[in-house]
Structures are given as structure tokens and as C-alpha cells.
Amino acid sequence: MDRLQDISVLLGRVLLSLIFIFSGFSKIMDYPGTEAYMESMGVPGSMLALVIIGELLGGLAILVGFKTRLFALLLIGFNIISALIFHSDFGDQTQMTMFMKNIAIAGGFLLLFAQGAGSYSIDNHKYY
């Protein structure tokens, strides 16, 4: 890869990862509220800890480029499933926008899956 492409992949990973890292911490800070919201949407609140772990670990793994293709696939699934569960009220313009945001993020992860982590990543670190 040339330097511009290497830097672009790194910045893409950073930008994709931030929403999951911040979202995971946000859920921790309002655990009861998030749990109640999940339950109101038909998702067991007991799954919240798993969601937080997935968002934080997935976001951090993408950030540093660790097992990037695996975590990209997992986060594609997470984004599509959460879009369908939490943002499928297409009569509400805000929910439609949130649905499309999740689908667009899934598209970004699909590109990352195809591209790989790039040169500036743990995946491509050369051990001597």
C-alpha cells in the first residue's frame, strides 16, 4: 500500500471505532436507563453487559487493528441487527435516519473486512 492509503485505512478505523467505544461507555454510565430501553424494545436487559463488552472490545480491536476482519464481521452483524430491532419505525424520520446510519456503518465495516487493517495495525505488525 502507498502511504496515503495506509493513513486513510488507519483514519477510517479510528472513525469507525469511536462510536462503539463512546457508546459502550455511555451505556455503562446509564446502565439502568439503557437496560429499561432495551426491555421496552423486546430485548432482555440481561444482554446489556454483553452488548457493552461487544461495543468496547470491538471498538478497541478495530481502533488498534487487532483481528480486524473478524471484528469487522461481528460489528456488521451487530449494526444490522440493532438497526432492525431499534430503528425499524420507518414512519419516523429520525428512526429512518438512525436505521440508515447503522446500515452505512455496516458498509464501512464491510469495506474494512475486504481491505484489512492496513499497515498501521497490530494485524500487520512484523515480529522479528
β-sheet strand percentage = under 5%
**Average pLDDT taken over every residue:** 96
Count of β-strands = 0
The whole-angstrom Rg is: 16 Å
The structure class reads: mainly alpha
What is the makeup of the main sheet?
A: none
Span between N and C termini? 21 Å
Q: Regions with pLDDT < 50 over 5+ consecutive residues?
A: none
For this entry, give a set of tags:
128 residues; mainly alpha; 75% helix; globular
Structure write-up:
The chain has about 130 residues and is an all-alpha fold. The chain has helices spanning about 5-30, 30-40, 50-65, 70-85, 95-115. Helix 1 (about 5-30) packs antiparallel against helix 3 (about 50-65), helix 1 crosses helix 5 (about 95-115) and helix 3 (about 50-65) crosses helix 4. It is globular. The two termini are about 20 Å apart. The model has no long low-confidence stretch (mean pLDDT about 95).
